[in-house]
## 1
Amino acid sequence: MVKNTAKRSVLLGAAFLMATSSIGPGFLTQTTTFTEQLLANFGFAIFISIIIDIGVQMNVWQIIAVSEKRAQDIANDILPGLGYFLALLMVMGGLAFNIGNVGGAGLGLNVIFGISPEVGAIISALIAVGIFVIKEAGKIMDRFVLIAGFVMIALTLYVMFTAKPPYGEAVVRTFVPDEISFLAIVTLVGGTVGGYITFAGGHRLIDAGIKGREHISTVRKSAVTGISVTAIMRFVLFLAALAVVAQGLALDPSNPAASVFQLAAGNMGYKIFGVIMWAAAVTSIVGCAYTSVSFIRTFSQKINHNYNWVIVTFILISTIVFVSIGQPAKVLVLVGSLNGLILPISLGVMLIAAHRKKIVGDYKHPLWLTIFGIIIVIAMSIMGLNSLINGIPQLFK
């Protein structure tokens, strides 16, 4: 059993691991890119994505907690081999995302200290690696993502208030938009709870021993906390970006997020962007590597025994690929969109599991959560298909 104080720390750590896993370079790029395109209407896309995020995480975390198994093992129980397919999707998507995370960390140190992004990426990767070579890696990771999460929100709030956004218009368009973008919604959901991010917090709780029906209420609260942290950061960044573009100022397409901070608060804003970008990227490196590798640890005793070193290898591979080829801003948006396409598959698997006795025993999954989940699977499938046919090709014109 996990003691109360340690339990609270792990629950908060799991929430922030999920949140900071989603708040990476792609998050910053996606938010500023779509704000420039949709202006105040982007608030509606954020609002819808948050509702979907809550439905996804409450379903997934509860099913993982009750079954006391990781997602890949649940999938294999439904259909032999399905877990391997799910793991393949997660590891491939996670690796693609992590290349962007490493690049973002390098860019952050480039802004702060003026060193090359490649050197910054290597330094950042070594810091992330350091977390996993320490004996108490789990506790260090929980504390690291918690502190970094608060720093990111505080600094972004400062820039938002400095920029003075049109709050009234943002509130109105959040609920009554002039324009709705399916690509924006799919990308936001994919970048927040798509791919590996869906399972980051749930797998962390399993590793920490917080599982079983007795923990359902606390697991649910932890899931909502994680989404809330992400939502606050998304809205604050959106308002900061809106303040800039509403003045008719153009963002640099090669680095739109940096433009927002620089135009809003001058050179100080640019340095703040560097800190936020670095914190967002490094915490995402940690969360992405941890969760991606958690999808293969149960397939081999050797991997499970050397879990932390496999995570280290994952980070090093991501770093080598970035230093070799880099990662442009549009690809960060693309990966978020593709992760959104994976979501209906992973959530569908979990919903089926919720009603299989051999997986959850006599546990009765709430009907409203099941219906909520089914609606999300259908809606994300339709919006994902629409984005694949219409939105993504437009992105690369």
## 2
Amino acid sequence: MGRWSNGPDEVESLKRITIADLKKLGYLQPNVWLNQNIHWTNQYGERVNSITVIIETAETGGYITFDYTYNQSQKINYKVKLITRPSNLGDGLLWFFVCPNTQKVCRKLHLNGGYFLHRTAFSDVYYEKQLRSKKWRSWEKVFGSYLDDKLYEELYKKHFKKFYNGKPTKKYLQLMKKINARRDISFEDLERALLM
């Protein structure tokens, strides 16, 4: 019979709450008090988890209270501070969480060990890339653009801007540089790297 993994968790696999999601749901606005549920679904669209959030905001800050049951037995209820900062584009304010553990200002909180916190609050959480083998990371340095299928997905996303004000965007130039680097890699180089 198999056992649960003792390895570290990956940031990408943790449940998270983001400022972008709260904004999309219409929950983050100045001078608001609301009590709502947030649901997570599996790949089939079935609800698997939910939590209650109580959001209290003023003009430039506020609190979000998380209320949920962790591991079907532990009742958890705590507040996370919300702050705003002026947009660097000069068109309003941007909302941020203040992690109750690390006091870091962030836009994402991850669930691990029962609490939604900034990723640096957890000692055993890593990005997927950090857990790859040394050999895989060295291959990725040399052949990364060749192995990355997401380059074309990003290039042809619905609202991706290739040009702004008649000039190519930095993101577009970076993508094109990576895509063009694929042409410089020969199959002999790939074969040689795999045999090392």
